[in-house]
Structures
1.
Amino acid sequence: MIPRYSRPDMVAIWSPEQKFRIWFEIEAHACDAQAALGVIPKDNAAAVWTAKDAEFDVARIDEIEAVTKHDVIAFLTHLSEIVGSDAARFVHQGMTSSDVLDTCFNIQLTRAADILLADVDALLAALRRRAFEHKETVRIGRSHGIHAEPTTMGLTFARFYAEMDRNKQRLLAARDEIATGAISGAVGTFANIDPSVEEHVCAKLGLKPEPISTQVIPRDRHAAFFAALGVVASSIENIATEIRHMQRTEVLEAEEFFSKGQKGSSAMPHKRNPVLSENLTGLARLVRMAVVPAMENVALWHERDISHSSVERNIGPDATVTLDFALARLTQVVDKLVVYPQHMLDNMHKFRGLVMSQRVLLALTQAGVSREDAYALVQRNAMKVWEDGKDFKTELLGDPDVTAALSPAQIEEKFDLGYHTKHVDTIFTRVFGES
Amino acid sequence: MIPRYSRPDMVAIWSPEQKFRIWFEIEAHACDAQAALGVIPKDNAAAVWTAKDAEFDVARIDEIEAVTKHDVIAFLTHLSEIVGSDAARFVHQGMTSSDVLDTCFNIQLTRAADILLADVDALLAALRRRAFEHKETVRIGRSHGIHAEPTTMGLTFARFYAEMDRNKQRLLAARDEIATGAISGAVGTFANIDPSVEEHVCAKLGLKPEPISTQVIPRDRHAAFFAALGVVASSIENIATEIRHMQRTEVLEAEEFFSKGQKGSSAMPHKRNPVLSENLTGLARLVRMAVVPAMENVALWHERDISHSSVERNIGPDATVTLDFALARLTQVVDKLVVYPQHMLDNMHKFRGLVMSQRVLLALTQAGVSREDAYALVQRNAMKVWEDGKDFKTELLGDPDVTAALSPAQIEEKFDLGYHTKHVDTIFTRVFGES
Amino acid sequence: MIPRYSRPDMVAIWSPEQKFRIWFEIEAHACDAQAALGVIPKDNAAAVWTAKDAEFDVARIDEIEAVTKHDVIAFLTHLSEIVGSDAARFVHQGMTSSDVLDTCFNIQLTRAADILLADVDALLAALRRRAFEHKETVRIGRSHGIHAEPTTMGLTFARFYAEMDRNKQRLLAARDEIATGAISGAVGTFANIDPSVEEHVCAKLGLKPEPISTQVIPRDRHAAFFAALGVVASSIENIATEIRHMQRTEVLEAEEFFSKGQKGSSAMPHKRNPVLSENLTGLARLVRMAVVPAMENVALWHERDISHSSVERNIGPDATVTLDFALARLTQVVDKLVVYPQHMLDNMHKFRGLVMSQRVLLALTQAGVSREDAYALVQRNAMKVWEDGKDFKTELLGDPDVTAALSPAQIEEKFDLGYHTKHVDTIFTRVFGES
Amino acid sequence: MIPRYSRPDMVAIWSPEQKFRIWFEIEAHACDAQAALGVIPKDNAAAVWTAKDAEFDVARIDEIEAVTKHDVIAFLTHLSEIVGSDAARFVHQGMTSSDVLDTCFNIQLTRAADILLADVDALLAALRRRAFEHKETVRIGRSHGIHAEPTTMGLTFARFYAEMDRNKQRLLAARDEIATGAISGAVGTFANIDPSVEEHVCAKLGLKPEPISTQVIPRDRHAAFFAALGVVASSIENIATEIRHMQRTEVLEAEEFFSKGQKGSSAMPHKRNPVLSENLTGLARLVRMAVVPAMENVALWHERDISHSSVERNIGPDATVTLDFALARLTQVVDKLVVYPQHMLDNMHKFRGLVMSQRVLLALTQAGVSREDAYALVQRNAMKVWEDGKDFKTELLGDPDVTAALSPAQIEEKFDLGYHTKHVDTIFTRVFGES
């Protein structure tokens, strides 16, 4: 995570201020529950809430931690400075540090997921808009980077929409996985704290109680969470790669938006680089690299070891901040992408009708020509196009062996683009529920 | 995938015979749909089904492929040899190879998921049985590999159960993701084939039609699938690691089952190695290594490039076969794990009551002793245990400063294991719905 | 590793026959050393060598292993069947299974490295030949997929040569890392076997003795080995990606060789797919996926755990066989690549001289025109090219404000391709030692 | 990279100040070379060096970049503010941004490698000292976590020394790989700048000229660099895992140093957690996660795309800072590790001599007892130890069938620890060159 690739809302989730705020809420709600059980005095629990609107002094907490070498104790000491040692003396009773740390981490991930979901929604809106805008904008479909059959730019946007919509579902599932909390004590037995405290805190903070925890919340949840981010990132790479291809000098079917004032744009109009999409390709690698360490974190020793912690202190902010930035950047790229329909047609016609050779071949055989003869007929006309720069349809219309099997109208029909776009509405209805 | 770590049912899914069987079904069902549309004669469609019970000759198909260098064409040629060229001439009409290949791959992955789900069910049953068996078998809980507070062996099994139950949900979601088919032609536009063919084939084969495909089914689905396998594998590593720790010479709280006849077992009774669990640790790495390449496969060029294919030809069988084997092996290990409750108690008492020092400390402060004094009291008695081998409870009972604050009964109570197990039923009810 | 992507020599290294052959040699050489020390009778050692030319019966060994559940014991039992139980009784004395297994694995990896080095040499030869062939074949250099400045196809081949030459050095280092053997007993202390046995066996088999082993050879060596393979694979992806770009319909600067008889090539001459290069992209992912598990294998417990074994049984053959196949395939692709120099020129001129706009801008400022004015001059002429399809040089020559600053000859000079190729010889001399 | 796991010297390498300082030196040296060639006036080149001791104003550069959206131009503008626009006008002439950026990045990596090499040297010194200190400290060697045969703590340290010494060689090779620079222009042809400029700049900055670059330095070098870091990290995990095992409550053969004042240490003397080693395990995962993205960065499009940049902006600092911190932390852990030789002996004797059962078995067969009988003899005595808590040697000495084959002295000899340590000096000489 570096400022260059960060947005403030997601960064804020991972700020020390925000972390201490969440810690406070966990502790304060736990006090309420303990008071309800009669374990601690109601007045003390109430007094803790006087810190509700306080600003926690991060520098002061750091200062205390430098002595105690324990972040939760440092925070509690500072809290005591705010609410008074009398109110503070029952805070954290029966709890273990991980109760606070793990519940907080899951709250942060849950909130991060909420931002990512909003990001995806914005991206979906842009993809949808562009899909309908270019529903009928014909371009050549390519397999292996080679011209195959016509498709439309709208279908390209529509498939990215469908893919991102699946990612939305994956993020929702990931959010659901991670939205748990645990207040279960040193080894998860609730020996020193009643399960109702966990239930209360979780209810207040929008979490489900972790059905069974040890000292920590089980890390398979986090592995699944970061794996979902990795899939989303891979889809971003997918879209970015398409745009990079479209913007290649020789293809030039689309360009990232280039602001008028941007230096060099008009003196070297050929030199507009898809740097945002290239950047997205790299960002995808960054998000994806969190997946394997998150999976390595699952196998903790017995009721916990702390090997996961340093990993999560990094990948927690890094992966979410980077993915948030990437989704927002991609949304902007999609939203403002300059599409060149004429270039699409020019490219499709680069080999003067040859992309239709397969349809002609099929038509000849269906008209009763033997497979071998049909092949030879197509081949001799195709070669004139490929080697001598002729137009395929013209050649076919001028070849008596071809016209003996197919009428001029039938030949014309093979070059009709409508043949290829006739099911676009069907597909749009599948994807968007309307066309 | 090597025979040593393979089971026949999963291997069968990936056999050439099975693949050709699936290809046949896709083609034959597509013929039916085409006939229903009137695109091809009904008789021809019916005639294709004469190959229904035929054995496809893999060697013969390989022979043809050596000439045509195209696997689907080789298969279709062989099919023609079986059903006759007349019946065969309408097979595959309007379809592209990927329609067959991708739909088949997803069927294979779906069936693989079904086996994995059955594997997980068997593992869940074993974990549940062992959890209830050892619900009250007390052992020391450990954080950082160091004794913390008592827990029970049943809780250990129960948390593995809960984790695997989450994995079951992940596998179900992954199965759902991958259970799609596509018969949409060269670039996914249905130019040469009606969408109703896709719908018919999918319905017959238990798939949903892919809402929008290109030449291929989008690979974010597969990335999510293999990511789910990676999470399951990481959980296997988690359980295996616990068992390996339990079987360490110095811990010896459990052992993998060791058959009577197994060489060396009784002459060197101390040398029983947790080789199955160690093996599972390695197998987890093997399954996990499919995750990143599957994610790298997502960004195909335009309507498809074939870079994903070689990856999937390997990780498809490898990851599913290895995970199937690992789940079955783990089930056996769990099912037959030899548990040593007495060793658990012995270990817990290794430091003669010191694990209860925190409870005593807390009790002293709650009895009104200042935090500093309480700490000093516990410390001086703890040191006698640690350095001189004394018993903690005995020392406390003999320390007048301690007994001034706590009655002998109160001290005794601090060493009561029931304190730690009182919520086991609560947790079991959360996990299993009963206790 | 699947047959489709395998070559016989590399596969043979990993065959059971070859493995047992190596095991035999380790054991027989160890017997010689033990006999020299007087630990076992010289006659027995000599008798073991009677199996020198024997075929080991893999099926028989498997049969024995099914009973003993131990592969080395099964082999030794079978060896005893060949050389007689009297000769066999001193075989393996003082050794531990890993002495055989680990030394064998390193021999296999060393031999695999030798094949890979030969593969790289063949690839280097092809790259060198093509580099000199196209040393002066001008093509446009591209950054971000966008035309930048001219370069030559020879430089493209030359940089791949330089990269692969570095990979050769990495493979040599990797081979050196892995060429060690260990015969050091159960925990590496030589308690039951003299270090001179290890020295003798290693000397005979072309290995260095591992300076300090435990039960196993340390796995950081293997991690470094597989990491080197991962880098080589990434370079393969790099070259493959270049070729895939060059073969795109719109670029068409080169094509993978397409044999005359290959179906469809002439009826659809535009549809020649770079499937070999795409396949290489996927194979690179497969090789690379061995890197992380190999690194995870390093941290074995104490003097060894066996978690690495299942990983290595897979990635050992898989990564080396796949990389061997990929290197050979790439060599063939490079060797036969069809290069289209005219298309390269056509592409370069797609925007009729605009790629030279930066040189013109620089020349104007050097001729004393202010930066702002120079920019405006270039811009107004560039726009006529970009929007109206004019020729850049012609426009410049016809612009009096331009010709006021630059003579026609000076303008012409800016479009001289020799300007860009003048240091090709320098670079070739750096890379190849000659030009 | 977060402050918690960072050390200032390595962080400084990646500071903006340091980056601009390196940029300045590249530009200033390039001016000298250009002046020597007569391309720019010598006075201007000299004038640039007036900024030699200037502080570059990072905030000001950021401010300019916010307008120009180009970091190198922003820097050059600021440089112009320092040295005057007259001196500055020839700076960067003929160069491309990547000439500066890539050469700078490699300088930073080279300097990072120097710090890492110094870190490894410090670690080697600590390992060597502890190895000699505990050369003869006997402990049980373990395979599979199970007691095998005796070894010494010195051998454990010695093997970590040998492993880290190999890592030193790998880091040296990685440093050598990355210590190149390139000043070769937009596509690497030296069209606008003479190769002698590159040579001069590289010579001044301790780099080799990159033999052939494009717009960028080839990324296989960086892939190899980060792969080397990944191997080092895996070795750190290896050592950390050993320490974590040793500190387990049941093993307790060593502990991380625990300062007297550290809270809780004496009231709960059993609860000292190996948190530093656990942390190192996590840090290893963080370093390792840079390996795959660095490999994915190799396949750039044509003469460059910028996808690698965002990856490197993160993994450059992150991997080196984290590895530096981890090496230093590990050095401290090793240096101060508290070793418990008595616990080592206690553990070895946990099963009262059973670890010697294999030696006894071998001795019996060598004394002429049949394998079956020897096995039965060992077994019946071993069972008395295992099940009834007897002492193995005592039982053997009291078993007339055993003493019929082996004299008491022979039996005693089997329990002699010197048998296992007799080659420690040999191994030390191999590893350290002395013993």
2.
Amino acid sequence: MANPFVKQYLMTAGPTPIPPAVSEAMAQPVLYHRAPAFIEVYARCLERLKTVFQTENDVLCFAASGSGAMESAVANLARPGEPALVASCGKFGERWVELCEAYGAEVAHLDAGWGNRVEPGELERRLAESGAKVVFTTLSETSTGVVNDVQALTQVAHDAGALIAVDAVSGLGAVPIPQDEWQVDVVVAGSQKALMCPPGLAFAGVGQAALDHAAAGPGHRYYFDWRRTVEGQRKDPPDSPFTPAVTLFVGLDVALRMIAEEGLDEVFDRHRILGRAARAAVRGLELDLFGPEDENANVVTAIKLPEGIDGAAVPKTMRDRFGVTIAGGQGRLKGKIARIAHCGYFSAFDITTTFAAFEMALREAGHDVELGAGVGAAQAVFLEAGVPVAAPV
Amino acid sequence: MANPFVKQYLMTAGPTPIPPAVSEAMAQPVLYHRAPAFIEVYARCLERLKTVFQTENDVLCFAASGSGAMESAVANLARPGEPALVASCGKFGERWVELCEAYGAEVAHLDAGWGNRVEPGELERRLAESGAKVVFTTLSETSTGVVNDVQALTQVAHDAGALIAVDAVSGLGAVPIPQDEWQVDVVVAGSQKALMCPPGLAFAGVGQAALDHAAAGPGHRYYFDWRRTVEGQRKDPPDSPFTPAVTLFVGLDVALRMIAEEGLDEVFDRHRILGRAARAAVRGLELDLFGPEDENANVVTAIKLPEGIDGAAVPKTMRDRFGVTIAGGQGRLKGKIARIAHCGYFSAFDITTTFAAFEMALREAGHDVELGAGVGAAQAVFLEAGVPVAAPV
């Protein structure tokens, strides 16, 4: 497949690179899900997930893509014929709209526009207008790199007597979303981003108010029904209502241990430095960010590609010639932006590698770029922050 | 964890053992789901799944437990307030009842009883009585080892103008269910049984009549909506509507190649010989099968444990002292039966190992068993069938 002289580098915001220790654990023989050896892993994951969600709530686990956990929020909280407010600013926010429509809710859509943040004041206005009692929004919008102010949005929702469910699939573990401190009712996440595992596990941290609301409107859900999974996970020992993806849990157990060993605050610091370095590299290349300059936007850095070149060729050249896989733009942004991830198992030299390849691909696409200018700007950030800023091994 | 002098043997009907080649493939660095290297794997899996389902239909893939694919069948086929017929004979059949109730269908439940087969004549009577236009049933009922005559049940359903959806989670790839030849409308399966992969992928082979019926009743589904996944998988190149569990697909690709290399008929033959040997071992131990003597029941062999011993102690001793994990009875059968699996990556000496440990555990539980009597009976079957009957390497 790959040219043996070109190493492969995965720099997308999901799937993200897997630490070798996680891969090694997953290569061990499969465990029976009711055997003590697995139950131990499972119970430990349930506890450690609470630490990452910064919550005392149950963190419900599903064998699913991250969208499955989003669906669980809609299936348990939205009601046919009743208003639901979606506050979106990109592709994944719009998925909330599709989900709510599929479940028959009357959707009030606050569309902040791709590349913008959702404004709390606007949410307040739309909540009053619609009378919605549940809000669906996004922490880190992967399609644009924008990170919303979930604390403020939660406050606004609660002031209006509404619950809030937040898609933190790409954000959880990269940027802070302390669920209990901010009183976020529902936080959904996936295994394949900052949790450093392959895709296939989806999570929902669910508070009591959300569980109560769900219990008041049963039906039209089974696999994603929170009650069923809560009951199983609260058993002693905990028991999944459906065959769990045992291999992914074995990997998750190792990844969560690594996060615990690095320290959650240190993990956030690392992402902050990685994000800062990426933004410095963009400036060093005299290019523009797509979206606002934001000290919290530390999951994905979206870069406006220079006009007059074939934008789609840049990620393609990076991947096919240099072995560095980044993401281009999705939907309306196709060919217009490049998205460089730094979410999960990423270190300083992943950023320099990515920008080195990015510069080379820009040059090949005919853009007059000074080779090393972006890399150098990133290096300066890393030195200033004090190396080592390596990812845990 | 495990005593280093005791090797571990996984002899349950899911999760099942994983071939080393599958584990090795999954330990490779993660692929981006839109990268050519993954799309190649994905497209090949979609094609090879058709071979195992023996169908030209789309085989829809979900990141989920097998129950997720079952839910997809109910979410797409059942209608609130309309009758749905569930023909069950054990725990997993009863899951269809719970699912149909969750989706608001009027459930007509043909309960054949645990350990019995569903009788086609009885299905015919209940279909006429209920007027149901969709039937949910089970190929291999993992809780009892019973394998239903899906060909006959399909014929009866179609004669009554009803669609039929079959839970083949533990059966597909172990016992024949040629979807197109038998015209089974929907066949659902999972990755962790005869497909020799870890749990986390669920499949639904869906025929045109079922797709048409689903299209006529949209709503109340998103993640498991067939239309969305059909549209993605039919693109060129195919594209999953949600981030696919890339690592599991990489493993599945290897497992499906192994099945292709062994040959599907040879895979069925191997399971036939394994099942026959297991039943011979039971007779050799002068014990009784739970359920009918059946040449097709080649997924799980359920054995009535002798009276007067602590039944629950047998699987426990096998696992804790001998490192051999089998399943005991579920629900009402707890402590009453032992279930030995031979579904997936199983070879002749997995059966002799399991029965050797079973005999030793029976002796330890106080049952007067002739050591080697079960093993010997199995050996005779293997010799008569003509060794080698090894699983593919």
3.
Amino acid sequence: MKIIRDPVEMQQYSDALRHQGTRIGFVPTMGYLHEGHLSLVTEAGKRTDHVVVSIFVNPTQFSPSEDLEAYPRDFARDETLLEGVGTDSVFYPTKDAMYAGGYQTYVTVENISQNLCGVSRPTHFRGVATVVTKLFNIVKPHVAVFGQKDFQQLVVIQRMVKDLNFDIEIIGHPTVREQDGLAMSSRNTYLGPEERTSALLIKKALDRTRDLYVEGNNKAPVLLQKAKEVLEGSPRIKIDYLKICDAHTLEEIEEIRGEAVMAVAVFIGKTRLIDNYVFRNPS
Amino acid sequence: MKIIRDPVEMQQYSDALRHQGTRIGFVPTMGYLHEGHLSLVTEAGKRTDHVVVSIFVNPTQFSPSEDLEAYPRDFARDETLLEGVGTDSVFYPTKDAMYAGGYQTYVTVENISQNLCGVSRPTHFRGVATVVTKLFNIVKPHVAVFGQKDFQQLVVIQRMVKDLNFDIEIIGHPTVREQDGLAMSSRNTYLGPEERTSALLIKKALDRTRDLYVEGNNKAPVLLQKAKEVLEGSPRIKIDYLKICDAHTLEEIEEIRGEAVMAVAVFIGKTRLIDNYVFRNPS
């Protein structure tokens, strides 16, 4: 497994791969990897010849009040995990290599970035779109795989790729969960034992919604009320948002007809967790 | 000379060229070509194996009050001119192919875009950076050539390429002028005969500045005052801005030490013309 730290060296390496006809798969991460990330690497490996994983805790997607410095990091552990799933290369740049002096260029996906997580994190998706543009230009992949757990991020990236004509296929991979249903996240390590128990109500609320939808309920206010009741089962949970939106525009809807998503963000103590359920067209 | 209208077809064509080891040069234009554009094509041809010229009057760099609809267009004439200088391919997309329904992604180069033309055209460089990002992703060039006449545009693109890690060499090509010194521009066709005569004072003002600088004057207020006096020789000229700036940050400076630029924009009647003089380090 090759470790590359310099952006220009990564570009030259990807150019050489491309010139040989090798198809490149890419999984961008902020490190502190869990099985969710590893499943993205496996998925990329099924679709391409050479998988590059980037590890970079991107400062531009954190606001000044957020947990940039506290964000967990363990490169040695990540390296072992990535070797274990057959990763071909790791791009692991420094902050200075990514954001040199005088840095001032940002990519904004306007409407989709504003609802859901964009309400409490107004510059978050600008940071995500910017760093992903940079990583796409450095890694030059044919395919990139993102987790559906970060549903809004996936939709933002899909829109950006379409709008800016990136010649890259974007794959959304299903959320990987712990045995008990909690969506895997690097932030789960912040949870105390009692908080961890409360966090299970997130998946329970989404399951309740799914069951009601499958039974024929497609009115958003009804589904939201039932999900809210489940989350209110723990006084530790503070809802940041709970919404049902069109799966492509992320605009709130009253009734589920096409593809839609129930998206939820909660605070448990100081930890903010997100999850979602995607309503597929009944077939 | 191949004409390609579809972005995906252009990407596939460029991929095939790259896979053969062909180096691609690129000159983005809004059409209605003059010798200035053609010199960029020739320059790109010297540096690469295959030159692609794009012709696209980009709506996102015009404000609602500006001359988008009136902007001159003549594809048949452009085609003949491009054939004449050995252009290999022309990318000539429709507006709908470039900005489909739901379009919402923009690239912003923050500080550099705000001074000079950014004052009177606050969204102009956002439109330029956005369409150039799109064109880079579609044409996939190794080298792109821009005219120094649009000096701020060149600096914005250079900064964007560095910040977003585009693996593309950006060349700034010297301004091409009419016999009498007027910088070539598609907008020169708007000028009536008397306006055309007044327009010559722009180059005269820059020449006066150059002469004073070469004689040892490096104080910006003095040079600006002398240039202003030349421009005031015609009552038809209304100065939009006349500034001396650092050539990389475009921040105004009081004294010329490193690379700097005198940049000027004037209205003559309804026509807005720009020009500049770059102060090189005395050698």
